[in-house]
């Protein structure tokens, strides 16, 4: 495979030393942290904090190694090449089709999850009846609110960038306020208490792994970091490592607060209600009691949903526009917006409590697109004896470790869907 770089690309590589590492770290962390973190306490409530800590560290490790596999692949192609280019070149048309379907399904299922979260947070914020007979209200509110936000994507991509910046700042501020205030309510003894009458913690470990994989879905940022930094390998690796580490620390702080405030037994009715964002936030607010912390927590929750919705929505919007060849004028963008937002919105109207299930499905798709296919591509690339600018150290042992561990997470989720694995 002979790859030639243009003069412009070479110039971009030389200018990469002037680009700060902080930007790449924030890009990586921002692609991971979002509304999906609200699923973590729900799916981890069975295994509880110590086992969750170990599991998250393992999943973070293989996710980071997977991103380095993708970096090894990316750096053998010109700047600006996409996942579709990688897979078609290394795995043929069939691989490209699988990657395309995986990416499309992943974005649709995540968008559905955020429609569901919109409705759930709306009924929580407005204190609307959440009984089974009023479930349609949640679905309707999710559809309406999601479509209103979708108008921003339809009108202008630039508007999405500006609003997302404001949302990220607001999310960071509200998270710091809510967490710092909630820390005084954390019972540290509760975090390591294994005396719960609903014991047998280890069997609950496996069902949550696919959700952890979804929470570390930052590997998609590799081509963008390559485009930004050129072949400055230390900065790309640094962005991936420190950005993902920031996400890991954020998750651990979040779990420390939720598990330190809400007792394990109290998660049973939360899970039974669907385990959506509003159910968890409502339980936290009830335990905390402070109106200031409650308001900050509600703001953080809504900022997280809108930010995640806009990010995933824009990615799917661009994907649909490219696939169908829609124009970028107002009419073409309207067609793109309808195909992007209406299917997941209507599904959330019919099945309003699917937030947790959707995040789990996303974990399986991430396994296919960001673990299995990169493994096959790296094997193909190395078999070609092509000189690569970067190669993940550890040889086949590391590649097999990542593949085996990620495969376990996918298999566990399938078993959990079949009710073979226990859930709290």
Task: Characterize this entry briefly.
The chain has helices at residues 7-14, 21-32, 39-44, 48-74, 83-125, 135-155, 157-182, 188-191, 209-215, 222-229, 233-261, 267-272, 277-288, 291-324, 330-350, 355-383, 395-417. It is mostly helical and 424 residues long.
Number of strands: 0
How much of the residues is beta strand, in percent?
under 5%
What's the CATH topology label?
Amino acid/polyamine transporter I
* CATH evolutionary superfamily: Amino acid/polyamine transporter I
Give the name of the CATH architecture: Up-down Bundle
**Secondary-structure-derived class:** mainly alpha
Q: Which whole number gives the mean pLDDT?
A: 85
Q: SSE order in H/E notation?
A: HHHHHHHHHHHHHHHHH
Number of domains: 1
Radius of gyration: 21 Å
Describe what this molecule looks like in 3D:
- The protein is mainly α and 424 residues long.
- It has helices at residues 7-14, 21-32, 39-44, 48-74, 83-125, 135-155, 157-182, 188-191, 209-215, 222-229, 233-261, 267-272, 277-288, 291-324, 330-350, 355-383, 395-417.
- α4 (48-74) packs antiparallel against α11 (233-261) and α6 (135-155) crosses α14 (291-324).
- The longest helix is centred in the first third of the chain and has 43 residues, at 83-125.
Summarize the helices and strands and which ones pair or pack.
Blueprint: H1 7-14, H2 21-32, H3 39-44, H4 48-74, H5 83-125, H6 135-155, H7 157-182, H8 188-191, H9 209-215, H10 222-229, H11 233-261, H12 267-272, H13 277-288, H14 291-324, H15 330-350, H16 355-383, H17 395-417
Helix pairs in contact: 2-11, 4-11, 4-16, 4-17, 5-6, 5-13, 5-14, 5-15, 5-16, 6-14, 6-15, 7-14, 9-16, 10-11, 13-14, 14-15, 16-17
